[in-house]
Amino acid sequence: MMVMAACGQPKNLVFKDVNNFRIHSIKLTEPIFAADVRFYNPNKYPIVLKHADVDVYINNKLTGKVIVDSTFTIPKKDTFSLPVMLDVSKNGAFNNALQLIMKKDLLIKLVGSARAGRGIKLVNIPINYEIRSDLAIF
């Protein structure tokens, strides 16, 4: 006799903050920023993150996109750091990206989805986080 435990959908990760914000490189006239985004996993089990596609808004203006295509194992009941690259969008967001370098007290919104789960059962998890932060580089 085989007993299968029912696996519910994982609880959403809790967005904590953004650390180590820096200019990674500049391609043509557009910078690529790097940062470590910290989350807390409230689940009683580790979660595997396979993919994330997130739009980044700074002060309510679309600034760029973060795409995570690597596989990460997120520890259970723990805070973890996810290294990301922010590719600044070409639609005039460069000026908004300059605020990242100079301005303090920014409203940061992350909107998108991630493919994550436990074992082979992966689900789309919505991402909709908002935080005020000081990311000024200078």
Task: Describe this protein's structure.
The chain has a single domain, classed as Sandwich (Immunoglobulin-like), CATH 2.60.40.10. It has one helix and eight strands, in the order E-E-E-E-E-E-H-E-E. It has one helix spanning 94-102; strands at 14-27, 30-41, 47-58, 61-68, 72-74, 78-88, 106-118, 121-133. Strands 1, 2, 3, 4, 5, 6, 7 and 8 form an eight-stranded antiparallel β-sheet that branches. A hairpin with a 2-residue loop joins strand 1 (14-27) and strand 2 (30-41).
Looking at this protein, list some descriptive labels.
about 140 residues, mainly beta, Immunoglobulin-like, 1 helix, 8 strands
Point out poorly predicted stretches: 1-6
CATH superfamily assignment?
Immunoglobulins
At the fold tier of CATH, the topology name is Immunoglobulin-like
End-to-end distance = 64 Å
Fold blueprint:
Layout: E1 14-27, E2 30-41, E3 47-58, E4 61-68, E5 72-74, E6 78-88, H1 94-102, E7 106-118, E8 121-133
Antiparallel strand pairs: 1-2, 2-6, 3-4, 3-5, 3-7, 4-6, 7-8
Structure summary:
This protein has 138 residues and is mainly beta.
